[in-house]
Design brief:
- The chain is mostly helical.
- It has helices at about 5-15, 30-45, 45-50, 55-80, 100-130, and strands at about 85, 90, 145-150, 155.
- The chain is globular and about 55 Å long.
């Protein structure tokens, strides 16, 4: 299955908060990983394949693409905070800038994750509202219809 969102579209959605991020920092496999890990357990594979083929453009634009974009950022943000290379794991340095404190990095990552979770819930709710209109969606495949984690408590229905 091809990716639902391009790297440039992902940039405009998930990295619109300022600062230059080179497009080559994010790979197609990062997008695929985020999709497989967080989105397909909600939508099911059949629906994602239909969306990848151009079906349900509004659902893609309003719910699926933003969710994939934010979860891709959740995945790659730690890699942006510290880069690995020949010199091992390093942080940005120089006379004008220094790496943010660990507490700020954790707070920032938590905010991104919270926004991504909210988008995922909105996607799930939209799919459940439109079950009859979206033939490829099976509510039994949506993990949020069976299990969720709120406030550190896992709830199974």
């Amino acid at each position: 299955m091809k990716n639902i969102i391009s790297i440039s579209e992902l940039h405009s959605i998930a990295f619109c908060d300022g600062g230059y991020i080179p497009q080559d920092v994010i790979s197609e496999s990062d997008i695929k990983t985020a999709t497989e890990r967080w989105v397909i357990p909600i939508t099911g594979r059949k629906l994602m394949e239909a969306v990848a083929q151009g079906k349900y453009p509004e659902l893609r634009q309003e719910y699926i693409a933003p969710t994939i974009a934010l979860y891709t950022r959740v995945l790659v943000q730690p890699r942006l905070n510290a880069m690995s290379g020949v010199g091992g794991l390093t942080t940005a340095g120089g006379s004008q800038r220094k790496a943010a404190e660990e507490s700020l990095r954790k707070e920032y990552q938590s905010a991104i994750r919270s926004k991504a979770r909210a988008l995922l819930r909105a996607l799930s709710e939209e799919l459940n509202r439109k079950t009859k209109e979206i033939a490829e969606y099976d509510p039994k495949e949506n993990i949020l219809n069976r299990c969720c984690c709120d406030g550190g408590f896992v709830q199974v229905y």
